[in-house]
Amino acid sequence: MASPSSDSPGGQGDAGIPGAQFSAVRFNYAREHGAASFGLAVDELTLRRGETVACIGPSGSGKTTLVHLCAGILAPSAGEITLGGVRIDGLPDAERRRLRAKEVGLVFQEFELLDYLSGLDNILLPFRLGGASRGELRAARGKARSLADVLGIDHLMDRRPRRMSQGERQRVAIARALVTEPSLVLCDEPTGNLDPKTAGSVLDLLLGEARERGAALLMVTHDHTLLKRFDRVIDVRDLHHELTPQGLEGRA
User: Going by C-beta distance under 8 Å and a sequence separation of 6 or more, which residues neighbour residue 204?
Assistant: First the structure.
């Protein structure tokens, strides 16, 4: 399923290297208590830098699994996945984690901010998780403050999340996702708990900032009123098959 958009991709990153690419990927969840396994099959999928893609499908159809495979949180049982030009399907967990901190920005529905950290330190969390040196952290602080200024949250840098509004926490989460200048931004229902006006503002920020920085953006959403804003729409049901003990049996 494809959807045209009046907003063209920014393409200011390295257009020759996709944000993420799948080739003949298979992922199987292990069976428990005799239940049939669930599997995701992606023959070919490319997320180009500067491109914004919406991912739709019913609950339980594999959208979050696709996001986790893109981020290297899960490893496929077969096939190839590249992230920022680096093949990740055969990397150990620690290497995938390091690459994820550098190449992937994650925005969750519940924001996932750490309440014991200030706004600035929440934004800088990917650098700390990625083992950045003191010099790299000093440079990152300047980048984080500049991004906070663009997002209108510069006054929140010393404030803890519990003293922020919902919209403010969401903007901090967006800044955290973008601060490493990732090749791929992944969003799992980031507007799901927001009112329509705030949801529209958050989407404006995500699409605009991702395009401005030349990042590929993949956003899981159930809100079909937002789809016309994206360059492309994929339905996860066009990518996966249900697995049974007898093997693949076709589309769910």
Answer: none
Say if residues 201 and 174 touch (Cβ distance below 8 Å).
no
How many CA within 13 A on the CB side of residue 120?
Answer: 14
> What is residue 129's predicted lDDT score, i.e. its pLDDT?
82
CA distances from 227 to 100, 121, 182, 233 (A): 27, 33, 23, 7
Is the Cβ–Cβ distance between 177 and 124 less than 8 Å? no
How far is Cα 218 from Cα 63, in angstroms, rounded to an integer? 10
Paired with 83 in beta bridges are 20, 86
Spell out the domains of the chain, with CATH numbers in brackets. 20-248 (3.40.50.300)
* Consecutive 10-residue averages of pLDDT for the chain (252 residues): 41 63 87 64 90 90 90 92 91 90 85 92 89 85 91 93 89 90 90 76 85 91 90 86 38 34
First vs last Cα of the chain: how many Å apart? 16
What is the C-alpha separation between 125 and 155, in angstroms, rounded? 18
CA-based R_g, the chain, Å: 18
Distance CA 44, CA 234 (A): 12
